[in-house]
Specification:
The chain is an all-alpha fold and 180 residues long. The protein has helices at residues 5-25, 32-39, 43-49, 53-72, 80-94, 105-128, 133-153, 160-173.
Amino acid sequence: MTTDRRVRRTRSLLRQAAIEVIREKGFRAAQVRDITERADVNRATFYAHYADKYALADELVRDEIRRRFATRLPAAPAPVANLVHALAVLLWEDSSPVNGCRRDINVLRPLIQRAVRTEVCCTLVERCAYESAVTAHIAGSTIVGAVCWWRENGLPDTPPDQVADEVTRAVLHGLRPASR
């Protein structure tokens, strides 16, 4: 389905305006009025494209996640272990406190995590030919959850490959009892 050129242009203006306003004011303080003024469109036009600023932010986050995946994951089909490892490294590096927008992270975290989990699941389904979307969702949620937990509770200076090795083992081999 091809989107009308005017629709693409308007959405592009709104997206760019939202990015600029959010960078200046932060997500919480950004208002639809600020975005529409910056984009030079009226509020009715905004609402014809997005339900609210959260819907626009959700689209921006999903597109950024897709872009990062497309540019940083191996393009060629890879064994599932390599793909899981690459996904874990990418998520670990992108969740670094240096890379994040700290001001509004608690507001945006659910959008980001949902977008990342969705994209990880889609990537696993497309590239690994999982027979079940449920299996891909479990694997994707495990990858995202493990990296988030490690970042929040683990050692922040852990090398990305060490994190990715642990996550890959958990995804591919499940839980193993600790040796005594």
